[in-house]
Specification:
Chorismate_C; globular; nine-stranded antiparallel β-sheet; Anthranilate synthase; ADC_synthase; binds the ligand C=C(O[C@H]1C=CC=C(C(=O)O)[C@@H]1O)C(=O)O; 27% helix; 8 helices; Isochorismate synthase; alpha+beta
Length: 412
């Protein structure tokens, strides 16, 4: 087992996107009053199959136990920290990964810090930073149908509605994808800066080229306390926020759709909690492009649970899978026509003190690892027996507009 040495010291200021030296290969997390940017490689591991979350936790725990951590800041994310993305499906061709960068710069409401991570035997850590490559716009960006075009998505929703009419399956979440092509290589620093400023109430991320701003949190853990935000039930804000909120509040289909998602999370948290689970919702979450029904849960985790294993046990919630889970996943595998890759699965970070944020990778695009001019974005929605295919399509369009905003806004 590799052993590492992580040294964290206070920093004078929070990093700006221009401090990150490279356009791609970064680990970026921004949201809710703090953030971290990481680059370089100290250690990395891939995981696969149904057991991938537990494997990842064990790998990180053993590495942390073998490593030396010298941390004078002692805040969430300081010391030894890893960033990760996980595949949606147990059978996905995409690997799930944890990566520990060589350098992390972070900030929160208490201040800023820097962590250098190197092999334990390197006693002289260098804090020299290479000259940053200038941030460059990607020029003209075009997008079009991916593997599942609009007609195919409409057919898939209609077919699913027929299946749901039998009553055994209550809800299935179906997604479609679009292909994005840029004139010049995509720059993660620019994409995440745009997303973080346009969606301040979301968690903006870029890990392994998976880049987005998600409003949904599976497991945010601080000092053993878990917070979860479940979203399901949506209305596009194309006709204004007030009209969207009214439509959502009075839609029996969306209220039922939300209930399935929040119940699925509550059942999982009940098994993970050491005491009572507090719920707050459903309330309405306003985003620029869409409004959602939203419920927050909080609980103290029982011994043995971590943010990652809790997120893994919740996954896939009925916000991205369906109800009942197994039957819904079966319909998705038969009808959707996509490998979802890391879309709609946990994305986030963890530290050796047990703090973590594992969000659901929604409103995101995966930059092609072999061609930085290309990315694939996915978006979906909950299909119920009352769903209208054209409305579900419009919902995915509104959801796509979040990530497309980051690709399309002209530079100032
Ligand atoms: C599956 C997605 O959204 C989920 C989260 C919020 C609302 C949803 C809905 O109303 O269908 C979905 O459950 C997506 O954004 O791709």
């Amino acid at each position: 087992m590799t052993s590492l040495r992580a040294v964290t010291r206070p920093a004078e200021r929070r990093p700006s996107p221009g401090d990150v030296p490279q356009p791609r290969g970064n680990m970026i997390w921004v949201g809710h009053g703090g953030g971290m940017v990481g680059w370089g490689l100290a250690a990395s591991q891939t995981f696969s199959g149904p057991d991938r979350f537990r494997q990842a936790q064990e790998w990180f725990d053993s590495l942390a136990a073998a490593s030396t951590i010298d941390d004078t800041v002692q805040s969430p994310g300081t010391g030894l920290a890893a960033f990760g993305t996980f595949s949606f499906s147990d059978e996905s061709a995409d690997a799930s990964t944890l990566t520990i960068p060589a350098r992390i710069r972070g900030w929160n409401e208490h201040g800023a810090w820097e962590t250098l991570i190197s092999p334990a035997e390197d006693t002289a850590q260098s804090d020299e930073i290479e000259e940053p490559e200038p941030i460059a716009d990607f020029g003209r960006v075009v997008w079009g149908p991916g593997e599942v075009d609009e007609d195919r998505f409409i057919d898939a929703v209609a077919e699913t509605v027929e299946i749901l009419a039998d009553g055994d399956i209550k809800k299935v979440v179906l997604a479609r994808d679009i292909a994005i092509v840029s004139e010049r290589p995509m720059d993660e620093r620019l994409l995440t800066a745009r997303l973080a400023s346009a969606f301040p109430s979301c968690w903006t991320f870029c890990i392994d080229g998976l880049t987005g701003a998600t409003p949904e949190m599976l497991a945010s853990v601080r000092g053993g306390h878990l917070k979860t935000r479940v979203l399901a039930g949506s209305w596009p804000t194309t006709g204004g926020h007030e009209a969207a909120e009214y439509a959502l509040r009075s839609s029996a289909k969306d209220i039922a759709e939300h209930r399935y998602a929040s119940d699925s999370v509550l059942h999982a948290i009940d098994l993970q909690a050491s005491g009572p689970v507090r719920a707050d919702g459903p309330t309405i979450l306003h985003l620029p492009n869409v409004v959602h029904l939203s419920t927050d849960f909080e609980a103290d985790l029982a011994p043995g649970w971590t943010g990652l294993t809790a997120a893994g046990a919740m996954h896939p919630t009925a916000a991205v899978g369906g109800t009942p889970t197994d039957l819904a996943l079966d319909v998705i595998a038969r009808i959707e026509g996509l490998d979802r890759g890391r879309y709609a699965a946990p994305v986030g970070w963890m530290d050796a003190a047990g703090n973590s944020d594992w969000a659901l990778a929604l409103r995101c695009a995966q930059i092609d690892p072999t061609d930085p001019h290309r990315a694939r974005a996915l978006a979906g929605g909950g299909v119920m027996d009352r769903s209208v295919p054209q409305q579900e399509l419009a919902e995915t369009e509104a959801k796509f507009s979040a990530v497309l905003h980051a690709f399309s806004r002209p530079t100032a």
